[in-house]
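Fold sample X.
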Amino acid sequence: AYSTKEESTKRSVGRYPVPNKKDLPYDIVELMEEVELKTGFLPNVFKAMSHRPAEFRAFFAYYNAIMNKDGGRLSKSDKELIIVATSVVNRCPYCVVAHGALHRIYSKQPTLADQVIVNWKLANLSDRDLAMLEFALAVCRADNITEEHFERLERHGFDREDAWDIGMISAFFAMSNRIAHFIDLRPNTEFYDMGRMPRGA
């Protein structure tokens, strides 16, 4: 949860220092500049993880492996919805806000992520989406995963490889959520408005 102390608003990233750009390895600076050029701002997770360059590389390499892989039945909006739903359970404001914004952009649905944040069981989800989130949340909560979980996914068009993708996203972001928690990672203000109105409106 956010701190109610007035000084907390002055900490734009978190509780660990962000290195100066000139002190960072070239490959990390190059990636950060590429992301900033593409999005118009640099998400705070890049700043925070640059505190540990080797872990920065490992973190974003695995992120790219699961989020930008070729093939599979999960769309970009599916993946972002999984992150939103599981990050709510893990009480991670940064990931809820940031990935809620990305879901709005990829899905072009400005309210669905908000519905999932409040109560995913009452959200305007298809049966397919419900099955996907049920599996993701079972992994998130470390429930006993049984064949029934896989069979339910299969009834909605997901195969075992899709189940792996859903489970891996849930598991990776459980780690990411906990990193954000202990470093007190704050969402960029830009995320709050992203995808809520058509461009140019």
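Fold sample Y, listed below.
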Amino acid sequence: QEIRKVVQALEQTAREILTLLQGVHQGAGFQDIPKKCQKAREHFGTVRTQLESLKTKFPADQYYRFHEHWRFVLQRLVFLAAFVVYLESETLVTREAVAEILGIEADRERGFHLDIEDYLSGVLILASELARLAVNSVTAGDYSRPLRISTFINELDSGFRLLNLKNDSLRKRYDGLKYDVKKIEEVVYDLSIRGLNKEAAVGAGGEK
């Protein structure tokens, strides 16, 4: 009961962060990215407090006994942290960096930690979000962003191909990555057909 209460509070905070970040998909949202990321990071302060509280609700050595309770919300929080870091620097957040943002451990031996499969699931949710962002970037007239997203997602896909995924839900999610790659490829192809990728390349010359 106690665990459930904290998990519900975490889910609420995750929804608030998601609502905030969803704003980047709107036309004017691109100008506001730094402000939205800063606000999201403030919300992660609440997440850290809630996770601190969660740690006190069960014996430290029984993490996996209760893991199912918070597994889903933790994956969402990984995705949200990864999305913030991507929007800020267009890089993939490491598991250690996510653990730091969430105020938990990266190592299993040190108590309440970020399970590797939860981290990977969160990263795969990010891929779907970026596929959506690639489409919406074109609508907003930002033609270079889909090219950068395409490079990032292809590198991500190559990384996942090296893994031997035994977890069923993770495998299913990884299957979805193929569709994300395809969706982004279609956006990039469409830009090249319309000659807009050249324009994007020229525009991107002076910026990241």
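Sample Y note: Residues 204-208 have pLDDT under 50 and may be disordered.
Also: Residues 22 and 29 are 9 Å apart (CA to CA).
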